Amino acid sequence: LLRGQTSEIDISDEERFVAACACGDEAEARAIQARRPDLPASLSPAQLRLLPDMAAAGADDVVRLMVTLGWPIAVRGGDWDGSALNHAVFRGNAGLTRFLLQHGAEWTEQHGFGDNACGSLSWASLNEPVEGGDWVGCARALRDHGMPGATEIPDDPEWVMVAGIRKRFSDEVSEVLLGREA
What we know:
The protein is 49% helix and 7% strand. By secondary structure, it is mainly α.
């Protein structure tokens, strides 16, 4: 009924591009990008937040597509203002963590609680906010891509030092970061 009474809605290339990415429609996103090579760089800050929002939602295929289309990888979003990497680590998503690191994400990317992916790993490995998360795999990926290993703190076996900062992790993650993994 409404379509019959209105003319076709004019949707900008930016909105079409964002919608195609959010739906995982690579062909449409690439067609729009071919006409508008300034995308995604010219998107608004609110539109750019789609990358970490999708990582927080566990939409791995969408995140991978967006990254391959040139989405700024360190942009922050989600309900705790983290990068896609922070959200992937939080969820214990080792595959996405490794993919993001291979495409330029840095373990030092900050989130809204004033820490970085190491802090995300610490909290998540202890609290397991997602059932079946692979925080050990995330720890391996972070170490493989530049996060320093941990050192023991004498007389305090529950805590370790990472990059000069005192941190606590699950026992399994601590073993990986201490280099004691079998």
